Amino acid sequence: MKTNVETWCVEEELPREKLQSKGPESLSNQDLIALILGSGSKEYPVMEMANLILAQGFGKLTRLSQFTLHDWMTIKGIGQGKAAILMAVFELARRKRFEELDQKKSISCSKHAFEHLVKHLGDLPHEEFWILLLNRNNTVMAAKRISEGGLSATLVDPKKVFSLALQFRAHGLILAHNHPSGNLMPSDHDIEITVKLRIVGKAMDLLVMDHLIVHGNAYFSFADEGILE
Hints:
By secondary structure, this protein is α+β, with helices and mostly antiparallel strands. The chain has 2 domains: 4-99; 105-221, 3-Layer(aba) Sandwich (Cytidine Deaminase, domain 2). It is built from 9 helices and 5 strands. The chain has a 5-stranded mixed sheet, with helices on both faces.
């Protein structure tokens, strides 16, 4: 009769064997998480633990990618070591996406700006404000975070925005922040800070070209909607 330990080992080997015979694309999300975990716990075999993790993220990897170390450790059987490994895997995936997006440098429309900004803002559970600094060819010289706030707001210091613009000798700026709520419509405060930064930018011969509000894989463009005119 097989013991529980032997059962865990069999379950643990199944995804590995599938990977070796059919390739990584054949593995389910549960299989992949089980391979990352490496082993289960006294309470849960590794495949069951992987399924529990997916359930905590409602089956969505995007949701799991937002988990903090504390979030991971609230799942039964996940200690600090396994939590750190899971966070490292999601961070590697995020960085790979950054590298792919950074290959496309020139900005000619709001979609291109979004492709640069989504890597910073798309999955955040709190609000942040970023800028893209562009040269005369609309090439991205840098992406910089200006501020970090709570669930529904973040403060923006114009001095920091334009100090960075001068430091990089930027010709233009694209503003961006995220709405964790998922509502992409700009608030009165969003419009007010955009107008303020455009006025200051104009006085400094710096063009504020757009302001994007981002959530997940969607965005709202002030320029596209004619708000900057």
